[in-house]
Amino acid sequence: MLAVIGGTGLSAINCFTIVGTEEVSTSFSSSAVEVTICESYGQRVAFLPRHGAGRTVPPHKINYRANIAALKKLGVEKIVAINAVGAIHPDLMPGSFAVPHQLIDYSHSRESTFFTNTDAEVIHIDFTAPFAEELRQVLINSATLINTVGGRGVSVLNDGVYGVTQGPRLETAAEIMKLKSDGCDMVGMTAMPEAALARELGIDYACLAISVNWAAGLSEDLISLDEIRAILAGCIGTVESVLQSVVAELST
Ligand code: HPA
């Protein structure tokens, strides 16, 4: 089964038929993880809003382990993650999309592994390519199709390096200069440890990043939350079309 993890701006899903809700218990949280079960093109699709249905959980407080373990328990084999990001690459104008191929993790103090049993042999996952290439290509094809055939006029960067910061504050201009010189094309707060936890459980994981602002210091203006919300609101319809197209492509 495919799962979609919704980020900021996507706390409910309207592009699939909702067929139920699963309350999934895991050993990583006292309360169950609520997952919406949907149907599209004859396939079941799970939907999990990363920040909670009430959009109240900030990036550093998300229980990434409970979320990924819950999806695994439901039989999820592939995850498409939707992440709002700040743009560093000049082609990633707010309102455009990227399907990153690499990441650099600057986050800290998050529960970032399932391998915490000190009695067991230590397992080091290979993380050379943090995103699943086949699923990335499906996302790129779908986003390009919606852009060209669907006439949405949204540009899609087919790769890029996603720098993951701790948040919840946005970065300083100097931090963004450092990320840029490190090779980051975009900056967000939520791809890690999500991507690594998915890899630890053998789930394919790819990310559709939505550029919602120029990163700190890269435009003349300060970053405005109202503008971010407006950009996101304008993108959600396109994101949903891309997701429908992903399910269609995976069902063939
Ligand atoms: N920085 C970090 N995370 C973000 C940003 C940003 O500028 N925009 C959206 N998520």
Rg, Cα atoms, Å: 17 Å
* Poorly predicted segments: none
CATH topology: Rossmann fold
CATH level-1 class: Alpha Beta
Bound molecules: hypoxanthine
Terminal-residue CA separation: 14 Å
Question: What is the typical, i.e. mean, pLDDT?
Answer: 93
Domain unit count: 1
Instruction: Tally the beta strands.
Output: 11
Secondary-structure-based class equals alpha/beta
Give a summary of the structure in a few sentences.
With 252 residues, the chain is an alpha/beta fold.
Secondary-structure topology with pairs:
Layout: E1 2-6, E2 17-24, E3 33-40, E4 43-49, H1 64-73, E5 78-87, E6 97-98, E7 102-105, H2 133-148, E8 156-157, E9 161-164, H3 173-182, E10 186-188, H4 194-200, E11 204-214, H5 225-250
Parallel strand pairs: 1-4, 1-5, 5-11, 6-8, 7-9, 9-10
Antiparallel strand pairs: 2-3, 3-4, 5-10, 6-11
The structure holds hypoxanthine.
Hypoxanthine is lined by residues 84-86, 165, 170-171, 187-189, 212-213, 215.
Describe this structure in words.
By secondary structure, the chain is an alpha/beta fold. Helices cover 27% and strands 25% of the residues. The protein contains five helices and eleven strands, in the order E-E-E-E-H-E-E-E-H-E-E-H-E-H-E-H. Strands 1, 2, 3, 4, 5, 6, 7, 8, 9, 10 and 11 form an eleven-stranded mixed β-sheet that branches. Strand 3 (33-40) and strand 4 (43-49) form a beta hairpin. It is globular and about 50 Å long. The mean pLDDT is 93. The structure holds hypoxanthine (HPA). The site of hypoxanthine (HPA) has 12 residues, from strand 5, strand 10 and strand 11.
